[in-house]
Design goal:
Layout lengths: L2 H17 L12 H10 L3 H10 L1 H4 L14 H15 L10 H16 L6 H7 L4 H18 L4
Helix pairs in contact: 3-8, 6-8
């Protein structure tokens, strides 16, 4: 092995080791952060289960982290996913959304699930995907919920 290659490998190992001690902030404010959303939207137990198992980790202020989230660079990758997910839709911010924004977020939820864009493929590799029936239940619930927020002309 030449000296240059050895130096690069050692540098990469050093960077990975240092990354283990510099952690991204965790998204763990507790399930009380979703209470307002669930109180207002009144999901059935089945829908709550679907949301908790497939959506809240990236779209609320409460993420359940798997064991591998403690290992850099995966911890940074997951932190980025959560941050981006919350930018698009954060159920913990539901009470701060206007009626128009709530309707729009629900419309996007339907679109993303119907098109198979949500949950993300990288999430489903480990956690599994929405089953056909779960997808239908979530979409139907969301469509019914939209009627509450759709502004009639």
């Amino acid at each position: 092995m030449n000296k240059f290659f050895k130096s690069i490998v050692l540098l990469l190992i050093a960077v990975l080791l240092i990354m283990q001690f510099i952690r991204p902030e965790k998204n763990e404010l507790g399930y009380e952060s979703i209470v307002s959303f669930e109180k207002e939207t009144q999901p059935s137990d089945k829908v709550k289960s679907i949301l908790r198992n497939n959506c809240y980790d990236c779209h609320s202020n409460q993420t359940r982290y798997p064991w591998y989230a403690e290992i850099a660079p995966v911890s940074y990758w997951l932190a980025d996913h959560v941050e981006e997910g919350k930018e698009h839709f954060n159920v913990s911010q539901w009470e701060n959304y206007s009626t128009k924004k709530k309707d729009h977020k629900l419309e996007e939820l339907i679109e993303e699930v119907e098109e198979g864009e949500m949950p993300l493929a990288s999430y489903t590799w480990v956690h599994g995907n929405l089953k056909g029936e779960e997808k239908e239940i979530l979409i139907e619930w969301t469509k019914n919920l939209r009627a509450k927020y759709t502004i009639k002309p």
